[in-house]
Amino acid sequence: MGALVLTLPDLTLVLGGAASGKSTFAEGLVLRSGRPRAYLATAQTFDDEMRAKVERHQTMRGDGWRTIEAPLDLAPALAGARADEAVLLDCATMWLSNHMLAESDFAAAETALFAALTQCAAPVVVVSNEVGLSVVPENALARRFREAQGRLNQRLAAEASLVVNVIAGLPQVLKGHLP
Fold first, then answer.
1. For 18-30, how does the pLDDT look when each residue is reduced to its tens digit (9 = 90+)?
2. N vs C: which end of the chain shows fewer Cβ within 10 Å?
3. In the chain, what is the straight-line distance between the N-terminal and C-terminal CA atoms, in Å?
4. With the C-alpha atoms ordered 54, 56, 57, 61, is the resulting torsion angle positive or negative?
């Protein structure tokens, strides 16, 4: 008997804290869809620690993923997704960080992202960090980031048909139903 194939909604949001298991859970959703897999990588590797983290994620994911490096402009990558694929965008938090550090026009980038998500031919699973559960950050940049991340997550959750929060590797469905 073959493995159960999941039908993914057009947009899924997988939230969680750092090292919560959210990426592994999201990868599992995409794998179980039985579709060819596209991975939109938003991380930039500026140091050895980040390079090692990216390499660990690549090793854990294994072969069979078409990887697109998209640290800032996700719209072309989403527009290039094939209808038969499943897309994993990992992660919205890193994408937001990249924009804040580049001091780019985040409002325009966010508008372009949501237009691209709406028009994407493939189902998309977005991974994002929940950063609002800890103490208030001590500096203005960190507070601006926390607020922007919260607003981005709320908007993603409003648009998504399925929203899952992962804590200690365990999924909690916040909206919709697991396929």
1. 999 999 999 999 9
2. N
3. 19
4. positive
